[in-house]
Amino acid sequence: MKKISLLLAIVAGIVFLSGCRNEKTDKDNWSTIQSEKKIIIGLDDTFVPMGFRDKEGKLTGFDIDLARAVFREYDIKVVFQPIDWSMKEFELNNGTIDLIWNGYTKTAERAKKVQFSKPYMQNEQVLITTKKSGITSFAQMKDKILGAQNGSSGYDAFIKQPKILKDIVKNQDAVLYDSFNEALIDLKSGRIDGLLMDKVYAGYYLKQKNELDQFNMIKGDYQSEDFVVGARKKDKELVKKINEGIAELEKTGEFQQISDKWFGEDVTPVQK
Predict the structure, then answer these.
(1) Domain match, 73 and 161 both
(2) Does 12 fall in a domain?
(3) Which of 120, 196, 240, 259 is deepest in the core (most CB within 10 A)?
(4) Domain match, 135 and 206 both
């Protein structure tokens, strides 16, 4: 009898919690967010330079600054909630967080579960070479040694789109490194001739090292990725406000200031 009572209590609790969640997930929450003056953003707090913890353990990054700037326009406080990145859409749609904002790439698969803001940034794979090498194009990598980071989206693109670079470099493969720092040391020393790298990370890293002027960052034909904010399907007004907020920051120049702080350049996307 006690087991049955306990089971009924657990079921009742689940039903109650589900009902609480549905209040948030089954409607547009902009008016509630406005009245509470608080919004919860989910992120992976290890993604340099979009959202990560500095040496003192404080959250910082391009997306952190951008999100705060957008919601400052509406007098709304941003609360950042570190989450398991593999569970991000689940955490969004069950009401644990209100937005996904952390170098979140727009894909057809994600569009089935999430509503996207307009793209606020584009990411792409670039070829990095030293200025002294004289290599300023992908074609000049013919029979040259290429480096890439192990497990990176750059190496994945290299394998999946072989005609762009794989078919022409030495051994039709890349030397793989566990870190960008290791690869950069070999690039500087001439042990490799070029390095395929995520532009977002490469730009930030070289800026931090004050070495942007020592390298070429060459764009190829790899497909670019759009970074967007992810919201629940019902939160149409919230997404509208985010789009308007980012547009206002672009108009005032604050978006460009945040961009330059983290990347040393303006990453405002060309509107399609």
Answers:
(1) no
(2) no
(3) 196
(4) yes
Answer for the pair 130, 149: CB distance below 8 angstroms, yes or no.
no
By percentage, how much of the chain surpasses pLDDT 90?
64
Which residues constitute the domain of residue 132? 125-219
CATH number at residue 161: 3.40.190.10
> Within this chain, do residues 131 and 254 fall inside the same structural domain, yes or no?
no
Taking the whole predicted model, whether its pTM rises above 0.85 is answered as no
pLDDT value of residue 120:
96
Starting from the edge strand earliest in sequence, which strands make up the sheet with 59-60, in order? 46-47, 51-53, 59-60
> Whole-number mean pLDDT of the chain?
88
Domain-embedded: residue 50: yes
Q: Amino acid letter at 95? A: G
Provide the H-helix boundaries in the chain.
2-25, 30-36, 62-72, 88-93, 108-111, 153-160, 180-189, 199-208, 236-252, 254-263
Give the pLDDT mean for 3-18: 50
- The type of residue at 266 is D
Return d(Cα 19, Cα 22) in angstroms, integer.
5
> How far, in Å, CA of 67 to CA of 78, rounded?
7
| 3 state SS of 152 | coil
What residues form DSSP beta bridges with 127?
Answer: 196, 218
Q: How many domains does the chain have?
A: 2
**Among residues 248, 255, 243, 252, which one has the least CA distance to residue 99?**
243
Given pLDDT bands bounded at 50, 70 and 90, which one contains residue 194? Answer: very high
Closest C-alpha to 27, from 270, 263, 242, 236: 236
Residues ≥6 apart with Cβ < 8 Å to 149: 155, 176, 177, 178, 179, 180, 183, 197
pLDDT interval class at 20 (50, 70, 90): very low
